[in-house]
Amino acid sequence: MNAESLVFILSRATLGLQTAILVVAALYLVQRFTSFDYRNFAWLQKIYDAAKSFHLERAFTLSLVATTGSLYLSQILEWAPCDLCWFQRIFMYPIVLLTGVALLFEKDDVHEYVLPMAMIGGSISIYHYSVQVLSKVSSGCSTLAVSCSDKFTYYFGYMTIPMFALTAFTAIGILLWKFRE
User: Fold this and answer.
1) In this structure, what DSSP letter does residue 149 have?
2) Which structural domains are found in the chain, ordered by start?
3) What is the pTM of this model?
4) How many CB atoms lie within 10 A of CB 72?
5) Which of 55, 81, 120, 130 could form a disulfide linkage to 179, CB 3.0–4.6 angstroms apart?
């Protein structure tokens, strides 16, 4: 498998995860503002129960895939990360350790540490994505290093590396916010 096909697979997985996030957000809004109750539908209840019982494992897996993906892009494909990519990594890499340790020692208070990291990392991803999409000149990045406005990938007409990171941060945040103990 070549590098381009692996990045394409990651973009497809990100698209699937974005679809799941949109469905969850829509169900939440419908339930919040109407009399709809997902517990009246057995199949929705099963999905909810499955998500709840393995939410920490899913958050760990998402952060691990995001971390190994970013390392693959920079170390194997030799795509140099820009300054904003590094800031996103600063908030993603510890999530792998925190969720992994929480799983290992069966801790249930990891959301107190991971949620702020996911929110800050996601905010940086939003800013980075806007720099890539809206500006021709890099904003807030070094002029000597890789420009933050460079797009190494651009799948489905909108998906760049910061969008990959934003999707992972969002999914991890939702998992740990919704199912916190």
Assistant:
1) T
2) 3-178 (1.20.1550)
3) 0.86
4) 15
5) 55
Helices H / strands E in the chain, number of each:
6, 0
Burial (0-12, 13-18, 19+ Cβ within 10 Å), 15:
middle
Nearest to 40 by CA among 32, 31, 53: 31
* C-alpha to C-alpha distance for 66 and 138, rounded to whole angstroms: 24
Structure tokens at 17: 């995860």
- Report the Cα 140 to chain-centroid distance in Å: 22
User: Which helix (H) or strand (E) is 66 found in, with range?
Assistant: helix 55-71
- Contact yes or no for 82/146 (Cβ under 8 A): yes
CA dist list (Å): 27 to 30, 35, 37, 70, 82: 5, 12, 9, 31, 36
Dump pLDDT digits (tens) for 111-135. 999 999 999 999 999 999 998 888 7
